[in-house]
Amino acid sequence: MSKLTTIGETLSEKGVSRRDFLKMSAMIAAVLSLPRGSAETISTALAASTRLPVIWLEFQDCTGDSESFTRAYQHADPAISGATDPTISSLLLDILSVDYQETLMAPAGYYAEQSRLQTIQNYPGQYVCIVEGSIPTGNGGTYCCVGGRTAMSIVQEVVSHARATIALGTCAMNGGLAGAAPNPTGAVGVRQAAPSAPNLLVIPGCPSNPVNLVASIVYLLTYNDWPARNSAGLPNFAYSETIHDQCPRQDRAENGQFVLAWGDQGHRQGWCLFRMGCRGPVTRSNCSRVKWNEGTNWCVGAGHGCIGCDSSGFWDKRSPFYASVSGSPD
Ligand code: SF4
After folding, report:
1. What SS3 class is residue 147?
2. Ligand 1 centre and the CA of 207: distance in Å?
3. What digits encode the pLDDT tens for the residues 128-158?
4. What angle do the packed helices 88-95 and 210-223 form, to 10 degrees?
């Protein structure tokens, strides 16, 4: 079991200076769209906070959110990253005490299960439960079992003692790919599987973006609550504006410059992908601001239309992904 050291102690042991700590706080405040003065508030609160115990459950998933979580993150945009070091993702690893995570943890079998139970016993009402993947309800929930127990029974037990719950990724939001028609396992998300999950935050995406995860957790540690959420539990700072409204290709769309075939002149010149099926106008996410893979790029930036992976029921509602869309993006 990890000792609950303060985050300030953890960073100090790693040689992180107060100046760098303030820079990190400033870039988190930028992601959260908080006023400038918030950086000082964040850094003071984080320094005094103990690392947050986490039980990370994985059910019907592809491990994409875990992969996303483990990526070291250095944003290419200095407005967000401040070109500072350590990075947003490294902060994530310093502020969390991940006591149970099936993909990453060293223990296996009996000892792994004990790690989960001990975290529940030692930190009741203090740990955060992160759920990755969908939960099957068909055939008594037997399509996904861990240690002889169904995913349904595990998630209900873990969230019942948690301080808060995060549904991480679109599968945990509402079933995702596993829940696509005909949904043979009866896959559902956390809200349906565990309606009593306390203080539920939903961070969709296929996979979810680790920047949105760390920003939300920093906010929780600073203000003792999640950032403002919409009625479905998604944080407004990340999911209130459409991809289209923030897209650097929007000028092209307004000028009627559309890609009409992969590899055509417009595609090579970065024109709008709406006619190639881009779902940016109907998808709400901050992808163009926070980007992916160490801030390198994002789907539209790489010349591929948005497939709406943050959307509820995206696999059924948004496919076929390359079908030309009629009308205009606005
Ligand atoms: Fe960007 Fe897609 Fe909107 Fe075109 S339709 S401006 S590519 S988000």
Report:
1. coil
2. 20
3. 999 999 999 999 999 999 999 999 999 999 9
4. 50
Strand-pair partners of 100 = 55
Q: Which domain holds residue 174?
A: 51-237
- Nearest of 188, 185, 168, 328 to residue 258 by alpha carbon: 328
**Do 87 and 204 belong to one domain?**
yes
The answer for residues whose C-beta is within 8 angstroms of residue 3's C-beta and 6 or more apart is none
* Residue 218 and residue 110 in one domain: yes
Residue 7 has pLDDT above 90, yes or no: no
Q: Ligand 1: does its nearest atom lie under 6 Å from the Cβ of 329? A: yes
Task: Give the CATH number for residue 201.
Answer: 3.40.50.700
What size, in residues, is the chain?
330
Predicted pLDDT at 83: 45
Confidence of residue 112 (pLDDT cuts 50, 70, 90): very high
Q: How many folded domains does the chain comprise? A: 2
Q: In a mutational test of the pocket of ligand 1, which residue from 241, 242, 243, 297 has the highest number of ligand atoms less than 8 Å from its CB?
A: 243
Q: Is the CB of 133 under 6 A from ligand 1?
A: no
Please tell me whether residues 147 and 259 are part of one structural domain: no
Residue 55 has φ and ψ, to the nearest 5°, of: -110, 120
Predicted TM-score (pTM) of this structure: 0.92
Residues 271 and 203 in one domain: no
Q: Do residues 215 and 250 both lie within one domain?
A: no
Q: What is the 8-class DSSP label of residue 232?
A: T
C-alpha 308/C-alpha 284 separation (Å) is: 8
DSSP 294: T
Question: Which three-class secondary structure state does DSSP give residue 328?
Answer: coil
Pairing of strands 145-146, 149-150: antiparallel
- Tens-digit pLDDT profile for residues 40-50: 999 999 889 99
189: burial class by Cβ within 10 Å (0-12, 13-18, 19+)? buried
Cβ(308) to ligand 1 under 6 A? no
> Domain check: are 256 and 117 in the same one?
no
